[in-house]
Each structure stands twice: as C-alpha cells, then as structure tokens.
Amino acid sequence: MKIEKNKIVFGSVLALILIFIISYSVLVMGDGDDESETLEQTEVPELKQDQKEYKSKLDAVNALKEVRETNAPSIYDEKLIDSLGFYDPDLREKEKERIVDSIYNSGRINYTENRYRNSEAEKANYSEVIADTSFILNKENKIANKEIGLEHQLFFSSNPLKNTAAITALKTEESIYAKVDGEQVVMVNSRLRMRLIKEAEIDGVAIKKNTLIYGFIRFQPNRAIIEMENINQHPVKLKAYDLQDGSEGIYVENSFRADATREVIGDVVDDINIAGVPQVGGIKKIFQRNNKNIKVTITNNYKLILKQAN
Question: Which InterPro entries match (predicted)?
Fold first, then answer.
C-alpha cells in the first residue's frame, strides 16, 4: 500500500507540472497574436443616454448651469472687512479720514476759508509781501542785535547771587537702626562689626538691609563710644546710641575704677606738676595701662540707633 500511495502522489505532481507548462505556453503565444493586429480606428465608448442637440450655440451656452460656490454667510458685515480680511468696526471712519487727509495733503482745499486753494497765486502773493516788508525785517534784526549786545553787557557787569536752591543738602535719616553682628570682645580703638536691621538712606545714598557696618571703640566712664567713618567706601560721620537708654554709646560696667577708664586721662595727668611728688609719673602709667587693657564683651544682636554726628 505504501508503494502505491507514493506512486499516486508522484504522478499527481507530475501532472500538475505539465498542466502549468501547457497553460503558460498558450498564454504567451496568445499575446503575440494580439500585438500583430493593427489599430484601424479609435474605439469610442457607447453613451448610455442620448446627447441633447441644440439648434444654435447660444441655446447651448444658455443651457449651461452656473456652478456657484456655497459659502457659509459671514457673521460680520462685509463692508467692514479690510483688504487683509480683518474685521474693523471703524473701517468707514478710517476710510473717510484717509480721503480727507489725502485731499488736505495735496493742498486742494482750505478748510478754514471753505474754498479751494490756488497754490501758484499764494506763492506770488507771499513773495510780494516779503519784498514789501524787507525793510521792516532789517530794522527788526538791527534792534534784536542791539538788545543782545545790551544783555551781554548787563550779564557781565552784574553780580548775580549764588543759586543756593540748586545746592541741596544730602538727606540722611534721623534714626538708623542697627545691631551687633555676633558676640565680640573689644578694646580701645577696636573695630566693632554691626549690621543694618532695615534699609536706610545715608547722605543721599540708599544702604540695603543687612549691610555690614564697622565702628571704632573708645571708652568713657561706664560707656563704650562707637563712631563710624565709612560705609561701603562712602565717607560718613555717624555715632551709635543705645536703644535701651537712648544715650550715646553702649552701657558697660568697667572692671577697674570708673575715674581711671576715661581715654583722656593721660592728657590730664600730663598737666599735673606738683613739686615733691615724684610718684605722679607712676600713677600716670597705671592709669594709661588700665585704660588700654579694658576689655568689654558686647553680646550678639545688641540693638543700636545710628545718628549723624554734629
């Protein structure tokens, strides 16, 4: 049985191949016969409907139906749409103004006199007027020259007052609020670092908030005096006042005798000259050494008021 099935399959495949070769050769040979035929007349497709005949060309033209574009109606008035296709409600007024301006610029109408302008006649009249009044203009020029010369003489001979109004004093705020920037230990001539609490105007210059300010220390009895001479490379003259008591400087408790902490004690002792008291020089040295060795601790965020020095 197996042998018979194989033979059947082989025979069917061979038969299909032969059928394909025969059909392909028939198609190829058939195309060659069509090409040999020559075209004697162009074929025209048959019309399903009979064509209507007209007696004249005019009737045929009139019978043509005009095909119009069906556009949706515009929501705007077409008279108010400019050449660029934009809607302008004032288009008519602008068009009128344009026409009036063009007429006015061309010089054809005098609006004040309600008549047409004759440019040539006006030029002639204007030239005549200039010719007739030339001597008047010469006189006026001479008078004007004399007046100018007189004004020059009066100017150089006068003694004008100084323009004091132009010299305005630079504005400085009455009270400028600052605080000590960090806890600091200071001595005589030490530098104290401070910071502005809010923006201020000093000598006409606006100083921003949190700007660093540096002052120099000197001592008086129970007070540390702070003076400022420069802020951001800008020379100033300011003194610091205690926000708590309103007095100049910061209140401090001196560790040594209060009468020995004043900075000018050295100059006072220089004036002392008592015969038979040789120990005065030693007292002077003690006072000077004590004044220089005073140290004061100023706490962080200590509030101060800066005012202009007199």
Answer: TraM_C (IPR055407)
Is the pLDDT reported for residue 182 higher than 70? yes
pTM confidence score = 0.39
With contact defined as beta carbons under 8 Å apart, do 239 and 276 qualify? no
Residue 61: band (very low, low, confident or very high) from pLDDT cuts 50, 70, 90:
confident
Please give the share of the chain, as a percent, with pLDDT higher than 90. 18
Look at the block and give the residue holding tokens 């004091």: 164
| Domains (range + CATH), the chain | 176-272+279-308 (2.40.128)
User: In this structure, are residues 297 and 187 in contact, taking their beta carbons and an 8 Å threshold?
Assistant: no
SS3 251: strand
CA distances from 53 to 46, 47, 56, 65 (A): 17, 14, 9, 16
Cα dihedral across residues 57, 58, 60, 66: positive or negative: positive
CA distances from 92 to 63, 89, 103, 104 (A): 42, 8, 17, 18
